[in-house]
Write a structure and sequence with these properties.
alpha+beta, seven-stranded antiparallel beta sheet, TIM Barrel, eight-stranded parallel beta barrel, about 725 residues
Length: about 725
């Protein structure tokens, strides 16, 4: 071995190298030697060391060592892969916006506190799973598409809806179904849970909030099926938990509330009915809806109101319609075939009793045959004299409809020759339906441009002849369309037809009253709400007027008209009867706080005290309600689709209790006026729920701090409880 002096500067010391290898070997084998010293299980390794050198062991087992190292490295990478996979999945879940369980077919929308679920595709085979419908959607978490092969396609889009005025927001889904082949149809069920729900129903009672069960099947032969659907057909519901549901009403949807599944509203789309089986309407059933979830019902409603109304706004009704009561000629005369002298007699009565009047409504049969659109010359021989006497006290309003009696010789035959009417199933001759008193009439085909132009010409002549200032639109009491109707527009729907009828009438005047419509929230029209009389606990009571008004307000119709009393048994029987003085007084007290109201029973048939009460309530309406409607705040709210009459929870939607949620015999006018009328005859006390705030009780002349339930509040026959909010104290309340 070379000495240190004999080695060069770059040569290694062999002894040092040997010591280094031995040290490395000892370090590597330390665990085994420890094992041997403590437990003695490594005898094979110890025997191997006795027969082989370290170098021979490394040489013989280096392949094993290499494989072991590869295994350790692979295990390390797999562990890292699983770790980062879990992290990525966690991030995907955090970013995920659409939660669909394709196996259970459940769509869930959550705002972090509450959630709403939808049972999807109930008409699809239960055994079939959708294609390319993963639980996690990567790339675009705001959109998902699921395909049930040869059956249907589901598309879901997520978005956050915001209200620019209030700054509130809600999480929303747009859901659409497309059927690929019959007999599959869109069929979803929405969990209504234990929340309180507001919206349309066909129930004659218990409409605000919705209670019990109901089914709604749209038909072209009835104006709705009772309840709210008898006034409008708009499919929007709002819950106390902040869930909003808006269905596209142009789809022919059948609704089943709590009838097929407990605590579920199920919706089925089916194109087999009239209008949807016509030539050119061969598309398979579809369904579209928007589902939103916000922190409270008011926030959700504010962000969804623009979806409900759309963007086309044609203004608000003329404020002159709210200045004083309207008066029904057929109601006051108790006949439909009145003449000009009877009209003039009403004007004389109004003047004599010093009763205010905004519109005198010529409803009933002022024409010789319905559809003439001219006055019957036998009963109105001096039309100019009559209209002059009217205009000194009221403006004249005419009740018209889009129907033409076959006995209206000129207009009916002209419409037939020009093919301006809705045709029957064969598509060649006009289809006839029943008007009031059994008359056979044809209906104007408003889907045809030439029909609208012809009708507009007739109406222009009529308005000029009668010097009319307002219009009331009626669709009769029975079937409003002929059997299996055929329109010139093959894509017409029942919802679109109702909307087009109202749009056509709105072109004549901004003083418009309609009894039935759909999708007309942006049109300048008053929606008429009649009052029903029912016996409850042995007393006759006014029902459904406040409930309907509050529901219509949430559906986007801010202005409603308290339209006298309903006609439950036919017009003739109603005209021969009248409500009791007590009940009529209670109706006047309630109606005076509506944006507008119409007398179908004159107060002078009772006594002087009733006439004086009508005078006082008219002044109260002008001082309070008209002033509120003209205020910049409420006027702006109404232009944006918010109701004039509001539920009591409106002022404190984030702190709801059972009293606030179920009150349906009180209402707010704007945010500052609370009205709690008595609605049954012979009643002189009631409970009143006062919502959050400091309220001035104008009847008792004291202050009430809400929320508070005033039990057994005493009310005289000629008294109506109302409260004015004192906003100056709101900041102190919050502190």
């Amino acid at each position: 071995m070379a000495t240190v002096e004999e080695r060069g500067p770059n040569e290694e010391d062999p002894a040092r190298e040997t010591r280094a290898k031995r040290s490395l070997y000892q370090w590597i084998t330390l665990p085994c030697r420890t094992c041997v010293s403590r437990f003695g299980p490594c005898t094979a390794w110890n025997s191997l060391r006795n027969h082989m050198s370290n170098k021979e062991i490394v040489t013989k087992y280096r392949l094993h060592i290499f494989v072991g190292l590869i295994f350790l490295i692979t295990l390390l990478f797999v562990s890292l892969g699983w770790y980062y996979r879990d992290k990525t999945r966690e991030e995907d879940l955090n970013n995920q916006k659409i939660f669909v369980d394709p196996r259970r077919r459940i769509l869930t929308l959550s705002d972090g506190q509450d959630e709403v679920s939808v049972l999807l595709g109930q008409n699809l085979p239960q055994w079939q799973l959708p294609l390319h419908c993963p639980i996690l959607t990567r790339g675009n978490p705001n959109s998902k598409e699921c395909l049930w092969k040869n059956n249907a396609v589901l598309r879901v889009d997520y978005f956050v809806a915001k209200d620019e005025d209030s700054g509130g927001s809600a999480q929303c889904y747009n859901v659409s179904w497309q059927t690929l082949r019959p007999p599959r149809v869109p069929y979803d069920c929405f969990d209504v849970g234990n929340a309180v729900w507001y919206g349309p129903s066909n129930q004659s009672t218990e409409t605000f909030p919705i209670r019990g069960t109901f089914d709604y099947i749209p038909t072209p032969y009835q104006l709705g099926n009772g309840g709210i659907f008898s006034s409008v057909v708009d499919l929007y519901w709002l819950s106390s938990s902040g869930v909003g549901l808006l269905l596209n009403a142009d789809n022919p949807l059948t609704l089943r509330w709590n009838t097929t599944k407990p605590n579920y509203m199920c919706v089925v789309s089916n194109y087999t009915g009239p209008l949807y089986g016509q030539t050119g309407r061969n598309a398979l059933p579809i369904m579209n809806y928007t589902l939103c979830n916000g922190p409270d019902p008011l926030t959700t409603h504010l962000v969804m109101k623009s979806m409900l109304r759309g963007m086309k706004d044609q203004g608000v009704p003329s404020l002159d319609m709210f200045s004083a009561p309207q008066w029904s000629v057929s109601g006051i005369t108790r006949k439909t075939d009145y003449d000009q002298e009877e009209v003039k007699a009403i004007i004389s009565r109004l003047k004599m009793h010093k009763l205010n009047c905004s519109l005198l409504v010529l409803d009933g049969d002022w024409q010789r045959s319905h559809g003439d659109l001219t006055f019957d010359p036998a009963r109105f021989s001096n039309l100019t004299n009559m209209t002059d006497s009217v205009h000194g006290t009221c403006d004249l309003a005419l009740e018209v409809s889009p129907y033409f009696d076959y006995r209206s010789l000129d207009n009916f035959h002209s419409g037939v020759d020009k093919q301006l009417f809705v045709r029957d199933a064969g598509g060649h001759v006009p289809g006839l339906t029943h008007w009031q008193n059994g008359a056979a009439v044809a209906m104007l085909d408003v889907s045809r441009t030439s029909s609208r132009a012809w009708f507009h010409s007739l109406m222009t002549t009529l308005f000029r002849e009668a010097d009319a200032r307002a219009l009331r639109v009626s669709y009769g009491n029975e079937g409003w369309l002929p059997y299996k109707p055929t329109f010139s527009d093959g894509s017409i729907t029942l919802h679109k037809l109702r909307r087009q009828l109202t749009e056509m009438m709105a072109t004549f005047t901004s003083r418009l009253v309609v009894e039935h419509t759909a999708g007309s929230q942006t049109l300048p029209a008053l929606l008429a709400v009649r009052t029903d009389i029912q016996v409850r606990d042995g007393r006759s009571c006014l029902v459904n007027t406040i409930e309907k008004a509050l529901t219509l307000g949430l559906l986007g119709y801010p202005y409603v008209l308290a339209d006298g009393f309903s006609v439950p048994e036919g017009r003739q029987s109603f005209l021969s009867s009248q409500p009791s003085r007590d009940l009529f007084t209670r109706w006047m007290q309630m109606a005076a706080f509506f944006p507008a109201y119409k007398f179908s029973v004159p107060p002078w048939i009772y006594d002087e005290e009733t006439i004086g009460l009508a005078q006082n309530l008219s002044r109260l309406h002008t001082d309070l309600v008209l002033k509120a409607i003209k205020s910049p705040e409420l006027k702006q709210d109404a232009e944006n689709g918010l109701p004039v009459l509001r539920p009591v929870w409106w002022v404190d939607p984030s702190n709801l209790d059972l009293h606030a949620l179920h009150v349906n015999d009180e209402f707010l006018v704007g945010d500052s006026l609370l009205v709690a009328p008595v609605l049954c005859e012979g009643v002189t006390q009631r409970n009143i729920y006062v919502p959050k705030g400091v309220w001035s009780d104008k009847l008792k002349n004291n202050i009430v701090l809400g929320p508070k339930l005033l039990e057994d509040y005493r009310v005289g026959l000629n008294e109506v409880p109302y409260f004015e909010r004192m906003p100056v104290y709101d900041d102190e309340l919050k502190e």
